[in-house]
Design goal:
Elements: H1 9-18, H2 23-29, H3 46-55, H4 60-63, H5 78-85
Length: about 100
C-alpha cells in the first residue's frame, strides 16, 4: 500500500480560501499572531493542524497523513513519537521556599 501524500501547502491555502477564510484570519481568530498558523504548513504542530482541519470540516490526518500514519498505514501515537524524538531534557521544577 502506497502511503498517502500530504496536501501541498498551496492546496491547504486554496481550500481555506474556498471556505471564505485564510491562514492569517484563522490564526487571529484562534488568538494567535497572524503569521503563527502558517508554521503548520511546514512542520508538525497538532494544535495548528486541528485549527486548520476544523475550518475545513475534516480530520488533520486527511490533510497531513504522514504526520498521523506510518508507511504501512498504521496510526502513529504522536505523543510517544514526540517524546521519543524530544531533545528536551528533564528540568527539575523550581519550588520557591
Amino acid at each position: 500500500m502506497a502511503p498517502q501524500k500530504d496536501w501541498h501547502q498551496a492546496d491547504v491555502i486554496a481550500a481555506l480560501r474556498k471556505k471564505g477564510t485564510n491562514m492569517s484570519a484563522l490564526s487571529r481568530s484562534a488568538g494567535l499572531s497572524s503569521s503563527t498558523l502558517a508554521n503548520v504548513l511546514s512542520r508538525p504542530w497538532p494544535k495548528g493542524e486541528w485549527i486548520v482541519a476544523k475550518a475545513l470540516n475534516m480530520h488533520p490526518a486527511e490533510i497531513w497523513p504522514s504526520r498521523y500514519f506510518d508507511d504501512s498505514g498504521i496510526l502513529l501515537d504522536r505523543k510517544a513519537r514526540a517524546e521519543k524524538g524530544s531533545r528536551v531534557e528533564s528540568i527539575p521544577h523550581f519550588i520557591p521556599t
